[in-house]
Design goal:
cytoplasm, 5 strands, about 170 residues, binds shikimate-3-phosphate
């Protein structure tokens, strides 16, 4: 079951480590569309890193900025947007994406995600914690929301180019 792509912004959602930024950048290149990374846009707008925003102002403040930045990116022009892992769990942000974009849930098992994030882990939700424990917990709480995306694609096996091909096939 999938919605055909009609030129609306393609919005990648899913857990940390699933490949939203890398896959999104490559997908945009294949479609000759602009690419935007919501976390980078938030950092540029705030002049602070995601970690600094969490530390200084807290997660609710970050979620609010995330919603505004994604709202601004959803300007009706075709593009590919990578979101941070919590964006689609926020009711307002999710509704914005569902109404104005084509959401694609990229998924992989918590085991695989934990291996991927272990290498370069500065994310505030993972600091000082066991990634597998955190990601297993986040998956159980967030998967019901991610599942609301009309398109589901696995990045379990990789490589990224295969995931891009699977998305292109799914969006028809
Ligand atoms: C978060 C994921 C991060 C970033 C922030 C919070 C989350 O983005 O937005 O650290 O709540 O899952 P990535 O999914 O790109 O790591």
């Amino acid at each position: 079951s999938h919605s055909p792509w009609t030129g609306r912004p393609i919005v990648l959602v899913g857990l940390m480590g699933v490949g939203k930024s890398t896959v999104g950048r490559r997908l945009a290149a294949r479609l000759s569309l602009p690419f935007a990374d919501a976390d980078h846009e938030i950092e540029a707008a705030a002049g602070l890193s995601v970690t600094e925003i969490f530390d200084r102002f807290g997660e609710p403040y970050f979620r609010d900025g995330e919603r505004r930045v994604i709202g601004r990116l959803m300007d009706g022009t075709p593009k590919v947007i990578a979101t941070g892992g919590g964006a689609f769990v926020n009711d307002e942000t999710r509704n914005l994406i569902l109404e104005q974009g084509l959401a694609v849930w990229l998924n992989a098992s918590p085991d695989v995600l934990a291996e991927r994030v272990r290498r370069r882990d500065t994310r505030p939700l993972l600091r000082g914690r066991d990634p597998k424990t955190v990601l297993t917990d986040l998956a159980s709480r967030r998967d019901p929301y991610y599942a609301l995306a009309p398109i589901h694609v696995s990045s379990q096996r990789g490589p990224h180019e295969a995931t891009v091909n699977a998305i292109l096939k799914a969006i028809g």
